[in-house]
Design goal:
Strand content: 15-25%
Distance between the termini: 13 Å
Number of domains: 1
Largest sheet: 2 strands, parallel
Number of helices: 4
């Protein structure tokens, strides 16, 4: 299985409504103005080595990049669209009710369904073991 890394120190997740479930600062985007990235922002840079941070800045979803990114986007008719994986990951990442350990567990489970392992770095209260 391939590995994707989620850097907790750069992660923006959760909503603004429930402060204890919010991770990071600013808007939830691929890369926001405060330097925080949602999970898909972090994954997009790992899945497409031709992307850089300027490409993803202030974008909400991978399909706004207007290019095929493995796992994240697909060609649909005459346009680029987010994959089911991307929309599921967005729902996990942005949900204001999910607590951090559960959010990580759900992302690990989702990634496992598509053949990836999630490694979380800079988050001391969980272990980086493979999803079961």
């Amino acid at each position: 299985m391939k590995t994707l890394i989620l850097d907790f120190s750069k992660w923006r997740a959760g909503g603004d409504d429930i402060k204890e479930n919010k991770i990071g600062k600013g808007n939830t985007q691929l890369l926001n103005g405060q330097g925080y990235m949602c999970c898909l922002g972090q994954f997009s840079l790992q899945l497409d080595k031709n992307l850089n941070k300027n490409d993803i800045k202030n974008l909400s979803c991978p399909d706004e990049l207007l290019r095929i990114i493995p796992l994240l986007t697909k060609k649909q008719e005459l346009k680029i669209a987010d994959t089911k994986f991307s929309t599921d990951a967005i729902n996990i990442n942005d949900n204001p009710i999910i607590k951090t350990p559960e959010r990580i567990r759900l992302l690990r489970g989702l990634l496992k369904t598509v053949g990836y392992i999630l490694q979380v770095k800079n988050y001391k209260s969980i272990k980086n073991e493979k999803a079961k």
